[in-house]
Fold these 3 entries.
Entry 1:
Amino acid sequence: MTEKHSQTAELPSPYTEIPRQKWAELAQGMRSPLTDSDLARLSGIGERLDTNELTDVYLPLSRLLNQYAIAAQEMHRRTRNFLGQQDERKTPFVIGIAGSVAVGKSTVARVLRDLLARWPETPRVDLVTTDGFLLPNAELEKRGIAARKGFPESYDRRALLRFVAQIKAGVPTVKAPVYSHLIYDVVPDQFTVVKQPDIVIIEGINVLQPPGAGRPLAVSDLFDFSIYVDARQSDIRRWFLERFLRLRESAFTDPDSYFKPFAALSDDEAIQTALGFWDDINQPNLIQNIRPTRARASLILRKEADHRVQKVLLRKL
């Protein structure tokens, strides 16, 4: 082993690793504000979200994020006082949530949105997904990258960066485009409006990308806190397949669905189609672009095969 490799191997981890049991103990004395019907509404397709998962994992996480947000607000106030600034515009606390397709990051984002809004210091929480910043299908076709939808180059990264920058600057009203999974495209002239909430959650597979060539700033540079939802690749592959088969029996049957042709596939045909999407698009994107950003996260949620979080890795201060 070379000296360089030896030094790299000896580098201490930037994370504190917390087993589920120890993490759950941080929620002692905290009562869940969500009902069983809330959990059913927030759960993703094929995911297991029960009272234990909520209490053990998400309650302590929501409190931690609440404390970070309070500290950030106080730091902004102190900085303004130090600089003699009179500008009292609210600076929202921005949380980024990343992870593979089918890993469950959307469920994480929804649960945290509802929990964070229950804390008295952060009653207004908005959730924005980066799907709305995908280039329209027509533009993807024009650029010859329709088959790479979801890869970093398929997003209007400048528009996404401008959106988050305006939020951080305290602009009173900021708009994000809306994406429809039914038509599999950006919806013209529809927007999600963000009006200076206490917290904004930005959820998307590639939100932790670093700055690229010719781009000195990335969206992830504007996050106050970031979460990466992690799992074994084999488990994510299985979850993707199971979700596709469930959608074939539900959302794909809608006459207006972009994926309507898939509803008529046999079981074998559906499995082969789903595996083709995974092998050709989602797995390469995970390996090349998504997983390499994991080490940039403030916190990592490590899931096991049953979708339950078994370990939390929190970046050391």
Entry 2:
Amino acid sequence: MRAATGTEAAVTVVLPHYDCAEYLGTAVASVLAQDRPDLRLFVVDDHSPDEAWTEALRPHAGDRRLTVLRTSVNVGHLRIKNKVLELVDTPYVAFQDADDISLPGRLRHQLALLERDGADLVGCAYEFIDPVGHTTGRRRMPRNGNLWMRLGRSTVLLHPSTVVRSEVLRRLGGFDGTARLGADTDFHLRAARLYRLRSVRPVLYRYRIWPGSLTQAPATGFGSAERLAYTRTMVAQERRRHTARSREELLSLLVAPPNDIDFTLESVTVGG
């Protein structure tokens, strides 16, 4: 299931999606157009109800950097990322949402900070876009995420715009494998205990706000019962870390629970 790249890849980009044919092709094209040829892209379909999404990938069928997979059951993007981590052999992992767009130079800027300045998890400034791609706003994230977290701010990175050292993901057990949503913030909270969270200043990511997105849909969006329940669990776990009596106890609380759903990843052929 590995993608051949012709050169040794430095970064694996993980792009899960569910029934997102409308935007998927643009998201994939924005990753493959990055000026870092040493990348590998995993597009993972989360058991969508039909095959419409495969048409969006047809223009990229011949790109050897691209690997397309499908889950055996619907599991959510966090469990997918944990599963794909088992296939990763690159020093860095980047994330991308299927309805968003990476701007030119995104990976180059972020990998430069990781490679030269010793950062461990790097985000960027981003702009909000509407369903048809019009810019509606802009947000800059703090350069030093650790400092702002110590000052009480919990959101210092936009998860799908980040690049992280693979060793960080492995040491922390990846993402909470019992959750369908919300655990990206939990990962940042855990990572900040041991690693350097930074952001580059340029706007390098376009974050789409539309009714069908995970953060906007009534059942899963901000303010939904499911998201509020997970937030309560996350806050309680963070309190436990604050009161840990030893470094050993703290380190054990920084490791995420593994995936609680058994599933497989199957190769998908697109194009033809």
Entry 3:
Amino acid sequence: MSDLICVGVISGAFGVHGEVRLKSFTADPLAIADYTPLSLEDGSGSYDLQITREIKGGFAARMTGVGTKEEADAQKGTRLFAPRDRLPQLPDDEFYHADLIGLSVFDTGGAALGEVKSVQNHGAADLLELIVPGKSTTVLLPFTQAIVPTVDLTSGRIVADPPEGLFD
């Protein structure tokens, strides 16, 4: 498990006075500001963050070291991380996406299905994107209690009961 959790991403400039567009990945989107200072994944930078207002698709925010539109534009795509120990403990049936990536996935009979490449969410529910051995494309597995009854972070394993035909 990683010591850093991605809590947001900068999606470009907002306006001409150095504000950035911020997309929050925290359960309560405003809570991202509670975890400052935020860092880059490699630890090379640290940013204080102040949300100025809600906008379509996220927030407008001010970041330390960003004062112009050009500097804000240069931050586009920057992922912001918080140390795991500053984040809340999760209930047993909830997981940080970063903890799921890389886990091996097996069916209920113990046959290997693949490895979690990413966790996607397109509005309805989370989907596990799996790299499947012998396939050139990935498979999206719904991440629901019915389809994924077991996630064992300690052993690095997920047990799934995929819908019929998903892996054909």
